[in-house]
Amino acid sequence: MSAAPLSVVIITFNEEANIARCLEAARPVAAELLVVDSFSTDRTVEICRSLGARVVQHAFAGYVEQKNYATAQARHEHVLQLDADEVLTPELQASITAALDNWQGGGYTLARLTSYCGHWVRHGGWYPDRKLRLYDRRLGSWQGLLLHERYELAAGQPDPQPLAGDALHYSYTSVEQHVQQLNRFTSIAAEELWLKNKRQVSAFHLVLKPLWKFVHGYVLRGGFRDGFAGLSIAAISAWGVFLKFAKLKTRPST
C-alpha cells in the first residue's frame, strides 16, 4: 500500500459495458473503490459490488455537483477520479503509485488515449488530452456550469504535474453513438451559453466557427493522420459547433 491511501472514485449511469475493466485496472492502486451511481437500470451496480466497490446511489444533478458529491464520499483525502470508460495502463498505475509515495503539490494530470470506432486516435487535438484527475481533495474542487467540468486547485497551489502513462479512453464505438451524444451535449452547451448571457448568434458563429473547427482539427492538428476516424471526428465536431449555435439562436426566450 502506498504512503498516501487512495480512493478511486467513479460516477456511473448504465455503464455495464465499461465498468468492470475500469475497476479491474484501478484495483492495483486503490485503497478504496467508490462508485457513485445515478440509479442505473442495467447491471452496473451489481457488477460494481461483485468487484468489491462500495456503491453510493445519488440522483444526478449535473456533472460538477455529482463529482463534488462523489469526492466528498471518499474515505481518503487523495482521490483519483475516473470515468467508467477509462482504463489505467500498467505504466500509469506505476506513476500513480510513485506519486502517492512522494506527493508533490495539489494534484497530477493524466493523458487520455481515446479509442474511436476501434481506432486509437493520436492526432487532431485528441491526444494527450491531459486532465487533472489525481488530487488532494482538501486543495481544490470541481468547477464549471453545465458542461466541461474541470477540477481546479485552490489559489496558491503549484501547477499540477504530469503523470507518465496513458488512461485508455474507450469512447464511441460507432458514428451513430457519436452523433447521439453530440446532440445531447450541444443542447447542454447552448443552454450554458444562454445562462452566461452569451446569446448573440451571427454568420460568424454558424459558418466560420464550424469551418475553423474542421480545419483546425483535421489539417492543423493532423487529424487526417488518423484516417477515417480523424475525418469523422473533425466533421462531426464541426457539425457540433453549428448545432450548438443553431440551438442557441432558436432557443425560446422564456
UniProtKB/TrEMBL annotation:
GO molecular function list: transferase activity
Alphabetical list of InterPro entries matching this protein: Glyco_trans_2-like, Nucleotide-diphossugar_trans
Name of this chain's protein: Glycosyltransferase involved in cell wall bisynthesis
Source species of the chain: Hymenobacter psychrophilus
Domain Glycosyltransferase 2-like: 7-100
Family named by the database record: Belongs to the glycosyltransferase 2 family. WaaE/KdtX subfamily.
One Pfam family linked to the record: Glycos_transf_2
Annotated keywords: Transferase
